[in-house]
Structures are given as C-alpha cells and as structure tokens.
Here is the input.
Amino acid sequence: MCGCTQSTQDQVLHLEGEPSPSAAPTSTIAPRKMPKSISISKQLASIKALQKGSDLEKAVATTALVFRNASDPDGRLGKAKAKNLLHSQFRNFIEGQETKPKYREILSELEEHTENKLDFEDFMILLLSITIMSDLLQSIWHVKITK
Here is the structure.
C-alpha cells in the first residue's frame, strides 16, 4: 500500500524470556503466537519494557499484538481477515463511514493490494487512513478537558 521496501515487520516484538532482537532473525515478525485464550492485557503485561510505558506506547503495542494474534505464521493478514479486524476491533472509527467516497477509496485500495495479504506496516497505514477520515476523530478533537 505504501510502496516501502523495508517493512516494520523487521522489528521483532520480544516478550520477556525471548531472545533479544539482535539474536532473532530480522526478516520476519516473531512467529510465536500467544494462545487466543490469553487476553491482550495479559500479553501486554508480559512485555517487560511496557510495564512503565506511556499510553501511546501501550496503544501501539496493543495494535501490534492484535495484528500478530490475527496474522498467519509469516506475520501477514489476508484481506478478509483484515476487514474482519476492522469491523470487530475498529468499528467505532468506521461506523457511518461506509458511504463516504474516501472510505470506499481506502477499501478499494485494500481490494487492489497486489500481494493479497497485508504486513504490519500496511495494516497500520490502513488504520491511520481510516482514523484520519473518521467522524470519531472529529469528536475526539472536540473533547473538552476539565480540571
């Protein structure tokens, strides 16, 4: 989707007890998956570096874990699974967007993706594209902070 030659998949997620990134192969995402019965919050808690992480770091780590748990052993998502993730995990951002030309364009690009599968980089671009054009983002910008 973005035409990048270097994928962010090359950065290996490492959990406590796994080899350090320098010891792990750099060409694939860590293929080991957590059992589906382990919640994302427990998976996050097992990542030592995030125990004192910021909200933003935890948000990105959550996205990476959701992607990894849904992806195939090669760290890629089929188009159907990517759409399913959007509808199940990102529904508040896509709600009401289905009739908008920009949303249709984004999904059309997903359909035309030549490799038939998305890597983590392409999935993040998809999420960001939908986020930027969503009505929910406009609501977030207008939240009043009270002290």
Notes: The chain has a mean pLDDT of 74. The longest strand covers residues 77-78. The chain has seven helices and two strands. The two ends are 42 Å apart (CA to CA).
